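To fix ideas, we close by showing one paired sequence and structure record:
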Amino acid sequence: MKLSFEELDSQTTHMGELSLRRRTIPSLNDTEVYEIKLGDEYLMSSLFHEAEVALADIALGGLEGNKWDVVVGGLGLGYTAAAALQFNQIKRLIVVETLEPVIDWHRRSLLPQGTQLESDPRCIFYHADFFSLAREKGFDPATPGFRFDAVLLDIDHTPDFWLHPSHADFYSVEGLERLKSFLKPDGVFALWSNDPPENAFMDVLSRVFARVQGHPIRFDNPLQQSTATCGVYVAC
């Protein structure tokens, strides 16, 4: 018998208690859903991943050339990384994740994308704090200052609603200038947000990057029988 709810793992981290849960939803034909919670807060659900996929598709869809080096900040349920790996032009994908249990869940195939990511030789899990790396040496474990073709970020809820206050300075002009120093001249920065794109952060991005776009990502919420909207910012 398939359990309607199961906690697959729970571990204490420096940001609080982190748990991985799996549930089936009878009203959605017993759809199997994976959820990650940090304390009492829901971080992500496999029921809603359209915007995470769009983050990779939009950012990399306009990138030219080949043999790309790409960074994904935030592993989560793996949807952004998996979508990025659909691009054959990627030579190396470094996925930076500060919560080690999340990497472990993928390596143990506890999550739907885990086997795909773990088996792709282009994909490298890097256990580190994305925001600390952005302030210091960059995102290549072996080469400080290495410049990437693209950096895709999906960690905080929005540019002004952070998982931790230490992330705040990244979303300033100074923080984004530091990030830009780790991009190639024609490189792309893209950011997922739980809210639709907002003019205030578009203005901040425009002070650092020549071209800035905000993409509303709409998707169905079958639990509420409504349409929800997230956002993807793209800057280059």
Remarks:
- The chain has a mean pLDDT of 93.
- The first strand starts at residue 5 and ends at 13.
- The first helix runs from residue 50 to 61.
- The chain has two domains: 5-45, 50-235.
